[in-house]
Amino acid sequence: MPRTTVAEKRLRKALDADENELKALLRDEFAGLEAEQRAELLQRLAKSAGSRKGGSPGLSARLFGVREVLRERLPICVVDERQPIGLAVEAILAIDERSFWINGWARDEEGGGKIAVVSPEGCRVELGERAFRYERSDVVQFYAGLGRAGDREHGFTAFFELPAASRLASGWVVELHAAGGAAVEVQCPPANTDPQTIRATILGELDNHGPLSGPLAAEHGRHALSRLQERIVGEAEIDSVDVYGEPPEAPEVSVIVPLYRRLDFLEHQLLHFSTDPELAEAELVYVLDSVEQREELASRARELFALYQLPFKVVNPTAGSGYAGANRHGVAVASGRKLLLLNSDVIPDRPGWLGEMCRFYDAGERIGALGAKLLYEDDSLQHAGLYFHRLPGTEVWENAHRFKGLHRSFPAAAVAQPVPAVTAACALVDRERYEEVGGMPLHYVQGDYEDSELCLRLADAGYENWYLPAAELYHLEGQSYLAEARRSLSDYNMWLHAELWGETITATMERFDPHVAAVAA
Amino acid sequence: MSDLRVLYVAHNHPTLHPGGAEAYALELYEAMRDEAGIEPVLLARIGSNVARRRVGHPGTPFSAVNGDPGQHFVFTETEHFDFFTLTSRDKALYSRHLTDFLLAHRPDVVHLQHTHFIGVDLLSQIRRVLPEAAIVYTLHEFLPICHRDGQMLRTSGDELCAEASPRRCNECFPELSPQAFFLRERFVKGHFANVDRFLAPSAQLMEKYVRWGIAEDRIEVEEYGRLAPAQRAGAPAQTRSPTNIGFFGQLSRFKGAEVMLDAMAMLEPETDAHLWLHGANLELQTEEFQEEFAARSAELRDRVTFRGPYDHDELPRLMEDLHWAIIPSIWWENSPLVIQEAFFHRRPIICSDVGGMAEKVRDGIDGIHFRAGDAWSLARTIERATGSARLWQKLRDGIREPYAMDDHVERLLELYTETIDSRKAVAVSA
């Protein structure tokens, strides 16, 4: 009998060789091994082969073939109220090739059973104590006829990582090993790879098993959603940059505007920008985040450039990556020394706002982000600087807008002053400073707290964020990034923001009074 | 000095679509054509809602009109027009076709009568293509302010609305957000910023636009100038009792058709009054309205006679039988041309006491006001008016001759010159 290390080497070689050769080798040399040896061999093989470079669905398919020969199968679970063990898997979400999320339930009479997940390539991971367990009324009811009390937290949901990549949707198996030695397995439904479905499912789980500050978010949700964001951002590259007219070559400032679905805003902004000579001197960069509208945007952009003759660029990424991701593309294309981050639903009240902001920025000492006075359509204040508000009885800080809803002429909002943060719906920041702090964070799920974290990063690096009332623009808040599941999204983002920046925020708010204007020095 | 080239832009051509503003636009163009030193061009929009088939030729929206080298149609698809933002979705209309037209004619003055179905973008394009041209815009109604067909009537209860705002407009159209109304207003105003001079045919219209945001020094009242009719209607044969009242215009709710019929039904039995309806476009109203109208006029056949559409040339003959003209509109109106028509033929007017009607008809001097939308008030007014030959004669004597086209042309030419000069001054200082 060959020793497993030798066997492993031979098998690894055979993975690259002819498929028939591999089959013959497996049949002749390995099928007769003890179950334990086979399991160990399979695990090592899956780990090393799956993590090597140049992995492919083809290799995964071969590993699956190997797994099918080497893996000791358990009895298939039959869900029946008379059976002591029950197991079901409802979803496997492939966040990326190594990160996964699982939802299901497991029930064994004695309790304390162990759940293990086996990837199609043969990697086996025990969920163990890590899995988040919760009571499922449907399962409790199903077994109620037995009249036995005991562990009621049958549901499990968990983020888990594999030591090696998995690239196959089908072939996942989950095992349940009861304490008494009985064991079953189930075949899983195909792994879902769609980022939108994954995001919605995970947010739904967080929502169902709140509070958001609880263990599910901290131990599972946060890691899963960060990985998902990384994948979404990583998959979105700049595909092309369309240039309309001749933008200035060495602009002082680049105006970066993400576009998401509401393409009609482009026409409104171009009309109002075209009457402001300062905008013609700036570099105007639109980034299309709803990539499915590429053709439509190109045709509109051509027509509108012919009308307004204000030069601008349109960045077309390969995939949508959310607000922060779109801004990241915009910054990559921008050539200005300053960056003016702008939402597509912001319309200037009158020309001259950009010059006001640039001059104020240059005159200031170590300004981080400079925000503007933003107005609702009825001339009430939408933004006069941000501060943080602690939700009563929690450690969670909410972003709050100073003087929101008051009239635009409210005296305290007419004072230029440092503020804890400003909204990136309209914010000016020096490019070097922006890059020094790593720009906008990508770990939030679609546009809520990126801007305040950017400001906190800038403050952390020793810069001061300022509010400038002389620049007045309208912000039709919430018209551009309209997400489904908006509430759970923003709850999650709020929680993550406080988790990461709670201490800095606490210190900042000890020094800041949001209800009065700063006294002019 | 070379001739002054003036381009008139209208949203319809009266040969295809009858209407006050259209009729005036053509009259003005013709009057300017007769002036020495003026070279006018009329560009009238035509489209699928007024023409039976596409007028025009492949590759161009333009076509000539009736052999007059100064008149052109511009065809625009009604479906391309965004009735909310007042812009065409077909941007090539501006960037290509209208630009070509402007460059081919190079007018010194562009005087817009309307931008409906063409779009407010035209204003920015004129400024871009012809930086020196004077842009004059006569406002005929409230479409730029009010999404409800420019009526400025609230959608619930038809209450008169004096002021638009994103919140109020959203109340009228709950399916459209306040933000959408804000964008609409900013969009229209953004293009209106290119206009040098706005003209308001009535002071009440000017006042509403000033409240909306047009600076007072950019707008002035200039009444429609009219050509006096070749023939004036004589006094009615029977003057002992001034019983005959004539309505001219569209029979629609906004024009007060229901108020009029309700009032006729409320008259005291002994009242000797008869209403003659010279109404157009009944077929354009809702089916419900048409049925209701037919039923009501049948009930009132002793007091009300529907005489159908009329041709402008027939007016003297139709007026001949009438003592009074009536304008019972429930909306503000602008400066209804019927007032001038009636006054040319020296017929006093019974009208609503709001807006352009109250402004142009002087209560107790050349007409009588009743409370707008109030059938009871109108019934009492009709009883009083038809019962007194002395009152009728007094009001008839109070009528002044309407503002003449000659005077209007003279004022416009002055205004064109002023505007061109001030544009040059701006160009020099820049």
CATH class term of the largest domain in chain B: Alpha Beta
CATH class descriptor of the largest domain in chain A: Alpha Beta
Largest sheet of chain A: 11 strands, mixed
Distance between the termini of chain A: 86 Å
Order of adjacent strands in the largest pleated sheet of chain B? 3-4-2-1-7-8-9-10
Task: Provide the domain count of chain B.
Answer: 2
CATH domain topology of the largest domain in chain B: Rossmann fold
**Intertermini distance of chain B:** 26 Å
Look at the helices and sheets of chain A and give the structural class: alpha+beta
Tally of structural domains of chain A = 3
Structure description:
The complex is a heterodimer of chains A (521) and B (430). By secondary structure, chain A is α+β, with helices and mostly antiparallel strands. Chain A has helices spanning 4-16, 19-30, 35-51, 57-70, 137-142, 195-208, 215-235, 264-273, 277-281, 294-308, 322-333, 353-363, 431-436, 450-460, 486-511; strands at residues 85-94, 99-108, 114-118, 124-126, 132-134, 155-161, 173-177, 183-187, 238-244, 253-259, 283-288, 312-317, 338-342, 346-348, 367-375, 381-383, 386-390, 397-401, 417-418, 426-430, 464-475. Chain A is elongated and about 80 Å long. The termini of chain A are far apart. Chain B has 430 residues and is of the alpha/beta class. Chain B has two domains: 4-226 and 405-429, Glycogen Phosphorylase B (Rossmann fold), CATH 3.40.50; 244-398, 3-Layer(aba) Sandwich (Rossmann fold), CATH 3.40.50.2000. Chain B has helices spanning 20-33, 92-105, 121-129, 166-172, 178-192, 203-212, 257-266, 287-299, 315-320, 337-344, 355-360, 375-386, 389-398, 405-429; strands spanning 4-10, 38-46, 62-65, 68-75, 81-82, 87-88, 109-112, 134-138, 197-200, 219-221, 244-250, 274-280, 304-306, 324-327, 349-352, 367-370. The longest helix of chain B is centred in the C-terminal third of the chain and has 25 residues, at 405-429. The radius of gyration of chain B is 22 Å and the shape is globular. The two termini of chain B are 26 Å apart. In chain B, 48% of the residues are buried. At the A-B interface, helix 8 and helix 10 of A face helix 2, helix 3 and helix 5 of B.
